[in-house]
Amino acid sequence: MKIIQHPDIPKPAGHYSPVIEHQGVLYVSGQLPRHPDGSMPEDIEAQTRLAMDKIRSLLRAANSDLDHLLQVRIYIPDVSLWGDVNTVYADIMGGHRPARCVVPSRELHHGCLIEIEAVAAVRPA
User: Fold this and answer.
1) What is the pLDDT of residues 4-50, one digit of tens each?
2) Closest alpha carbon to 27 in 79, 91, 73, 67
3) What DSSP string runs through the chain?
4) Distance CA 31, CA 50 (A)
5) What is the pLDDT of residues 105-119, one digit of tens each?
């Protein structure tokens, strides 16, 4: 098991690692749609894009990319957001369709409308 270290990976606020690699598989911790200064977009579409951008950056730092995603879990506080999330997600992912789960949950930390975690393969050398 290896904790991925890279200058582009910000230090987490909590007791966790943003990305762990084990046997060629990357485990990406849940990403909230917050900028480093704590601000966040107001609408679900922009929050979805920001959370996916953060996943893209973490994967890039760990020698992978969105095309190597194996599974994605998306948490939303209200199932009524599902359609808007799905539209943005499909636009970002294009033809790649990793396994996915959308979980309607209670409210998310900091009032976020989405949190996304992922599992990906390391890109072959």
Assistant:
1) 998 888 888 889 999 999 999 999 999 999 999 999 999 999 999 99
2) 73
3) -EE---TTSPPPSSSS-SEEEETTEEEEEEE-S--TTS---SSHHHHHHHHHHHHHHHHHHTT--GGGEEEEEEEES-GGGHHHHHHHHHHHHTT---EEEEEE-SPPGGG-S-EEEEEEEPPP-
4) 9
5) 999 999 999 999 999
CATH of the domain at 102: 3.30.1330.40
21 in any annotated domain: no
pTM of the model: 0.95
Q: Stretch 72-96: mean pLDDT, rounded?
A: 98
Q: How many domains does the chain have?
A: 1
Residue showing tokens 């990793």: 98
